[in-house]
Predict the 3D structure of the following.
Amino acid sequence: MNISKSTANDITKSILRLNQKEIDDLKKEFADKLRTEYLKTVPSKIKDVFKTNDNVFLKSTNTIKLCGNGWNYVEIHVDRIPTDEIYIVNFTPDEDISNKLMQEYNLIQDAEKAYNGLFIQVESLLINLRTYKRITENFPEAIPYLPKINKTEVAINIPDILSQIKKDDGQQIEALGEVLNELESQMFEEGSEEKEVSNGN
């Protein structure tokens, strides 16, 4: 049985799920630090009211746009914050804070670049291996994420089918027999692969 490109993509996501979680955690940590720095610029009374009654604020946002001190309008998603602007707040950290944030941001960018490169390699490997049998033999890490094979067996009684067809054209009957034999052969091969995968598990 072969896997599709879509299936290879899903399997790759599952295999690299911990790599993705590591990046997501870095992003969340960065966003929390940025949010904390922004809230330092918000008056205490506003923060106190927002903390306990954030529903009274008609203007709030989940996006901070970093600009100045090395930042070129980079948008970061954060937990909701009060603002006097709509949708996006522009924020320029002081130079020291900006440098520290920039170092962390660059590490995240590097991690995402490495992840994307690895994703392409793993997905390509799965597509090139293509069959359950070859994946099982050459990439056992992928076995737990292979879709379950439908083990319903379909029996094809070729002689019975041929006997019900009017034999007014010998060539058509012969051609049909070849097609059916080929289909039966393919199903036998897939059945053999299923057994090998099951034994591998």
